[in-house]
């Protein structure tokens, strides 16, 4: 029952942020559909990671980056609209000088942590905790893109945070006192 409450809180927060008051937030463009597909794929991956004890997180992360690169390469070459124009190779090379260190310092450790952590905790908790991505995204677009940030976004963030805290605190409280103090 507690998991269902946490899921309900998290989805409620997500729907509040996405604007359920103006209609069901169905994917509206190709990017939205890719985002939805990536969420479904991550849910499947979290279950598989939790079940798989034979592969090391480093191997899994390497596979993640190799396949991600290949899919991105294929998608970058496929025109999805008339506005699709691939950047010049020189622009790509210029970008790599600052992108590679950012990937090495921020993205790779984050992916390793996600692969390592998803093996240790229940996939349902992984999903709820990863909803914090919505919180970070909401705050980031408000700061960098000038998107609105008001009471609706605050309520959504609080609901999602409550879901993550409810599930996490409950797990800590279930543990025997001797394990909690260690």
Give the key terms:
8 helices; 182 residues
Overview of the structural elements:
The protein has helices at 2-18, 30-51, 57-77, 89-120, 123-130, 132-144, 151-174, 177-181. The protein is mainly alpha-helical and 182 residues long. Helix 1 (2-18) runs antiparallel to helix 7, helix 3 (57-77) runs antiparallel to helix 4 and helix 6 (132-144) packs antiparallel against helix 7. The longest helix has 32 residues, at 89-120. The protein is globular and about 60 Å long. The model has no long low-confidence stretch (mean pLDDT 81).
User: Spans of 5+ residues with little confidence (pLDDT < 50)?
Assistant: none
Termini Cα gap = 28 Å
Instruction: Profile the largest sheet.
Output: none
Q: Which overall shape is indicated by the principal axes computed on the Cα atoms?
A: globular
Helicity level: over 70%
Quick one: how many beta strands? 0
> What is the residue-mean pLDDT, rounded to a whole number?
81
Strand content: under 5%
**Which H/E pattern describes the elements?**
HHHHHHHH
Q: Counting H and I runs of at least 4 residues, what is the number of helices?
A: 8
Summarize the structure.
The protein is mainly alpha-helical and 182 residues long.
């Amino acid at each position: 029952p507690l998991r269902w409450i946490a899921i309900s809180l998290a989805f409620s927060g997500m729907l509040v942020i996405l604007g359920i008051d103006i209609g069901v937030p169905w994917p509206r463009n190709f990017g939205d559909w890719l985002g939805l597909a990536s969420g479904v794929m991550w849910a499947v991956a979290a279950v598989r990671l939790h079940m798989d004890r034979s592969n090391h997180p480093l191997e899994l992360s390497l596979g993640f980056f190799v396949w991600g690169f290949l899919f991105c390469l294929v998608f970058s070459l496929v025109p999805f609209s008339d506005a699709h124009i691939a950047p010049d190779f020189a622009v790509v090379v210029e970008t790599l000088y600052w992108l590679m260190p950012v990937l090495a310092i921020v993205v790779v450790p984050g992916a390793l942590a996600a692969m390592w952590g998803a093996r240790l905790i229940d996939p349902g908790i992984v999903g709820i905790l990863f909803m914090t991505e919505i919180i970070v995204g909401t705050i980031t677009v408000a700061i960098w893109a000038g998107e609105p940030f008001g009471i609706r976004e605050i309520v959504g963030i609080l609901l999602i945070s409550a879901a993550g805290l409810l599930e996490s605190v409950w797990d800590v409280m279930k543990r025997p006192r001797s394990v909690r103090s260690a």
